[in-house]
Amino acid sequence: MPEQFASNANAAVVRRRPILAVTCGEPAGIGPEVSIRAAWERRAEINSVLIGDAAFLAMIAAEIDPKIRLVALSQQALRNNGLPNFGLDQVAVIDCQLEAHVQPGKLDARNGRPVLRTLDLAIDCALQGIFDGIVTAPLQKSTINDAGVPFTGHTEYLAERSATPQVVMMLATDRTTPPLRVALATTHLALKDVAAAINFDSLSRSIDILHADLQKKFGLKQPRILVTGLNPHAGEGGYLGREEIDIITPVLDAAKARGIAVSGPYPADTLFQQKYLAEADCVLAMYHDQGLPVLKYASFGHGINITLGLPFIRTSVDHGTALDLAAAGLGHADHGSMLAALDAAAQMVQAGRQGKA
Ligand SMILES: NC(=O)C1=CN([C@@H]2O[C@H](COP(=O)(O)OP(=O)(O)OC[C@H]3O[C@@H](n4cnc5c(N)ncnc54)[C@H](O)[C@@H]3O)[C@@H](O)[C@H]2O)C=CC1
Ligand SMILES: NCC(=O)COP(=O)(O)O
C-alpha cells in the first residue's frame, strides 16, 4: 500500500480509539509499572494518556523496554486542543510532577498531593469530554491522609469532585462463567458505621444506580440482582438483627414495584454458590469485606473495579499498591488487572457510542 494511504488508514484508526486517562497512582507502588505496561500493550486499540511524573515514568519505561515510546503532552495543549493525532506506536504522557524522590516500596507523604493532582486533571478533562473515561492505578489511601487531605478512596473522591450525590462500587471478573459482578451498598467505611449507613433511601438509590448502569454499560436488558442481608443468616428472622426486616426487604419490595429484577435478602455466606450465581447478573453486598473477598478469591489480578453512577466512565484494578513487589524491583507485578480495566473502559466507551448512534 502506498505510504500516504497507509498513514490515512492509521489516522482513521487512531481517531476511533477510545481516549482514556490513566492515572499512575502511588509512585512507590506498582501503579506506574502496570500502567505503562498495559498502556503500551494496548497502544493499537486505545489512546491511553498516562498522567504522572513524566521523568519518573520515562525512567521506568526505559527499564521495562527501551522500545516503549512515551510522548509528552502539555496540560495546556490538552485542555485547549484535546488529544493530537498520536501515532499507533506511542503513548501520551501528561506531566504532574512529584515533590519527593521516589524510593520503590517506601511511602512519602510529600507525594500525596501530587497524586491527587493527577486525579483532579483526569476528572476535569473527563467532565469536559476530553477523555472518554478514566482508568486508575492504585494509590495509597493512608499517604493522601498523611499529606493532610482526608481521603477514603478514589470512589468517594470521584463522586465528590464530580458533584455526584451517590455512586456504587462494583468489582467484576469475566474469568468465571457466568461473569461475577459484586457491587457494594457502602464503600470505604469502618465496620462500626456500616449499619447506620444503610437506610431506605441510600439502599434504594444504590439499586437504581446498579440497575441503570448494568443496562447502559453492560448491555443487560433486565439485569438480575441478588441482594445479601447485613447480618449472619440474613438476620435469622430478626433474632440476629432487624435490618433485613426493617430496611432491606421493604427496599426490595419497592424496587420490584419499579420493575427491577431484584431478590433477597440472602445470607451472604451461602449466596456465592454456582446454582444461585448462574441465574444472576450481579450480587449487591452490604459492605466492602462482605462481597470483595469472594470476587478477589475468584480472580485476583484479573478483576476490575468500576464506579457506577458517575457522569463519566471510570474503571480500576482489583489490587492495591503492592509495596512489597515494588520494593523488589520491576517485573514482579502482574499487570493483568490493568489490562482488564483498560479493556472494560474501552468496551463501555464503544457501548456508549453505539447507544448514541
Ligand atoms: N484502587 C485503589 O487505589 C486501591 C488501593 N488500595 C490500597 O493499596 C494499599 C495496599 O493494600 P493491600 O491491602 O496491601 O493490598 P495489595 O493489593 O496492595 O496487596 C495484597 C497482596 O497482593 C499482592 N499483589 C497486589 N497486586 C498484585 C499484582 N498486580 N500482581 C501480583 N501480586 C499482587 C501483593 O504483593 C500483596 O501480597 C492500601 O493503601 C490500599 O488502600 C487497595 C485496593 C485498591
Ligand atoms: N478494594 C477496592 C478499593 O479499595 C477500591 O478503592 P478506590 O478505587 O475507591 O480507591
Automatic annotation (TrEMBL):
Localization: Cytoplasm
Cofactor: Zn(2+); Mg(2+); Co(2+)
Keyword Ribosomal protein included in the entry's annotation: no
GO biological process, one term: pyridoxal phosphate biosynthetic process
Binding site for a divalent metal cation: H188, H233, H288
Record's signal peptide: none
GO molecular function, one term: cobalt ion binding
Recorded catalytic activity of this chain's protein: 4-(phosphooxy)-L-threonine + NAD(+) = 3-amino-2-oxopropyl phosphate + CO2 + NADH
Pfam families referenced in this protein's UniProt entry, alphabetically: PdxA (PF04166)
EC assignment: 1.1.1.262
GO CC terms: cytoplasm
Entry keyword annotation includes Oxidoreductase: yes
Metabolic or biological pathway: Cofactor biosynthesis; pyridoxine 5'-phosphate biosynthesis; pyridoxine 5'-phosphate from D-erythrose 4-phosphate: step 4/5
Keywords: Cobalt, Cytoplasm, Magnesium, Metal-binding, NAD, NADP, Oxidoreductase, Pyridoxine biosynthesis, Zinc
Protein task: Catalyzes the NAD(P)-dependent oxidation of 4-(phosphooxy)-L-threonine (HTP) into 2-amino-3-oxo-4-(phosphooxy)butyric acid which spontaneously decarboxylates to form 3-amino-2-oxopropyl phosphate (AHAP).
Additional information: The active site is located at the dimer interface.
Assigned protein family: Belongs to the PdxA family.
Listed HAMAP family: PdxA
Subunit structure: Homodimer.
PANTHER family: 4-HYDROXYTHREONINE-4-PHOSPHATE DEHYDROGENASE
Protein name in UniProt: 4-hydroxythreonine-4-phosphate dehydrogenase
Provenance organism: Collimonas arenae
